[in-house]
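step=encode ok
step=design start
structure_in=
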């Protein structure tokens, strides 16, 4: 029994003949259909598709959408997959990009990966720039029976790229303008100089003097043209003047009438008792011309442009003038009776290179330049417009105190002062060097000349550094520029007075210049130069930095 009992028992560790061992799982995807694991994998896949910020689609070999995730529905402005059922993907893109998409589909049908970049058009018309990476899907026989596409919305990236390109354009324009301005301002300086000297010898009111004045004012306007890019790049060095905006608009009135044409009426309304401001009159004229031209272009069928000035007092925190500090202002207003602008358009008008004009008829720099000029002189530019109700631009410039005005007008009035001092002129432009020499000599000064810094230093050494009351030097010259020469001169004589000048916009390009150093920008008139020379010579000596300090 015992033997029988023992034979009837199954040894430990062995399975009964009635108990079948579990078959091993076949190799392959553990998420096979029919089990709980498969459901979990499917849930995870759906979670990934739903969480993806990229659109993920499947397509038939003909490019028809068969499935799409929620991000894809947002891209194509669809409420559900039903809205896109049996829709060819090519039908959701701009027509000019469908050929590139067709090339991508041909690659997929060959079993290769595909790429396409296109502008999509949603069901509601919204456009987006899409970058698509696609891969073929194969059936059991190795044939392509579908395609998987991942679509990324690159609209924001392309917009940033446009802004970067615009910034590069601005930098290139600033660099180009700076290089051109040097030579151009030298030539304009010669024209202005000789013209002013010609007018000094002509009878007031004569036809010859009127002709010379026309040349003089034309050269001034030509100089202002170069300033448009220089101001925009904020590299210009300007000197302030006392400006009466009412006098300015009266003086510019004839030129504005020629600009706007006969089908538009111009009304000029100057305030007789307007507060004076601190600005460059050529720049303010430029602002006025740009605003007037914009008003003209807004009324192709004719209308009325009003240019007027007024006094204003802005209270602190005034909601009607956000961002304008409290104080007294002179206001220049340009109003038109055109079609007006929408709020969306008004939000863009000061953007660089933004224009609503046809290609080739506008640079998009006009209003951006106006805003740059006004801000430079601590002012504000406001715009008010409604569709069908015209547009009004108002320039707010802070008024000067009367004591400041009186002091500056006294300094600028009267004939240019004379002198008997010795002045060294260092200038690489022969024509301008000759003109400056004539202007100074006519006022009684003794003039020494040099065409660059090395020649100037050699001349100073010959004279042992004695007998020079002032050095007028261009900043940028061949062999040795003005800044380096000034350092050597101050090493010889720390009290040497130096007046810098240049036609470059980036006039400090050779290094930081001490704030006590004097500067006059090109192009300058003979009278402006003579007043500046007298001012610098008569000023109490100020010790200038030597080589050690400048290093």
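sequence_out=
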């Amino acid at each position: 029994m015992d033997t029988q009992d023992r034979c009837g028992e199954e040894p430990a560790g062995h399975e009964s003949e009635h108990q079948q061992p579990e078959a091993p799982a076949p190799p392959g995807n553990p998420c096979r259909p029919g089990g709980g694991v498969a459901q979990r994998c499917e849930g995870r896949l759906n979670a990934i598709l739903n969480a993806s910020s990229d659109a993920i689609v499947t397509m038939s070999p003909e490019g028809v959408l068969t499935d799409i995730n929620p991000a894809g529905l947002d891209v194509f402005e669809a409420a559900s997959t039903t809205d896109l059922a049996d829709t060819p993907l090519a039908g959701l893109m701009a027509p000019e990009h469908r050929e590139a998409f067709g090339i991508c589909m041909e690659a997929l049908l060959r079993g290769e990966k595909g790429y396409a970049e296109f502008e999509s058009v949603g069901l509601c018309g919204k456009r987006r720039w899409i970058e698509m990476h696609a891969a073929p899907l194969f059936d059991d026989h190795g044939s392509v029976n579908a395609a998987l596409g991942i679509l990324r919305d690159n609209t924001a990236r392309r917009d940033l790229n446009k802004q970067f390109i615009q910034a590069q354009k601005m930098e290139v324009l600033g660099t180009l303008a700076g290089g051109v301005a040097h030579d151009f301002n030298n030539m304009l300086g010669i024209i202005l100089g000789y013209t002013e000297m010609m007018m000094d010898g002509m009878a007031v009111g004569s036809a010859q003097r009127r002709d010379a004045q026309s040349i003089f004012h034309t050269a001034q306007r030509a100089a202002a043209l170069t300033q448009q890019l220089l101001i925009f790049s904020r590299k210009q060095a300007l000197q302030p003047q006392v400006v009466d905006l009412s006098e300015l608009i009266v003086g510019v009135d004839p030129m504005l009438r020629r600009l706007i044409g006969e089908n538009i009426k111009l009304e000029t309304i100057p305030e007789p008792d307007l507060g004076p401001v601190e600005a460059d009159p050529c720049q303010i004229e430029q602002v006025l011309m740009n605003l007037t031209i914009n008003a003209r272009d807004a009324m192709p069928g004719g209308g009325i442009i009003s240019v007027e000035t007024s006094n204003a007092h802005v209270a602190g925190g005034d909601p009607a003038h956000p961002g304008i500090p409290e104080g007294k202002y002179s206001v220049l207003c340009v109003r038109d009776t055109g079609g007006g602008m929408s709020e969306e358009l008004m939000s863009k008008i000061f953007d660089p290179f933004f224009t609503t004009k046809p290609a080739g008829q506008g640079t998009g720099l006009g209003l951006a330049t106006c805003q740059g000029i006004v801000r430079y002189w601590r002012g504000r530019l406001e715009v008010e417009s409604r569709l069908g109700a015209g547009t009004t631009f108002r320039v707010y410039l802070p008024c000067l105190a009367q004591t400041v005005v009186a002091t500056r007008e006294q300094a600028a009035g009267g004939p240019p002062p004379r002198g008997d001092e010795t002045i060294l002129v260092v200038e690489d432009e022969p024509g301008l060097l000759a003109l400056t020499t004539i202007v100074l000599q006519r006022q009684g000064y003794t003039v020494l000349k040099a065409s660059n810094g090395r020649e100037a230093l050699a001349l100073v050494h010959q004279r042992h550094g004695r007998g020079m009351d002032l050095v007028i030097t261009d900043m940028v010259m061949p062999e040795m520029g003005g800044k380096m020469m000034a350092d050597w001169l101050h090493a010889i004589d720390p009290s040497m007075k130096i007046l810098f000048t240049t036609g470059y916009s980036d006039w400090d390009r050779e290094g930081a210049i001490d704030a006590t150093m004097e500067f006059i920008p090109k192009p300058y008139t003979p009278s402006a130069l003579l007043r500046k020379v007298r001012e610098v010579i008569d000023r109490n000596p100020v010790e200038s930095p030597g080589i050690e300090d400048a290093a």
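step=design ok
step=annotate ok -> The first strand starts at residue 55 and ends at 59.
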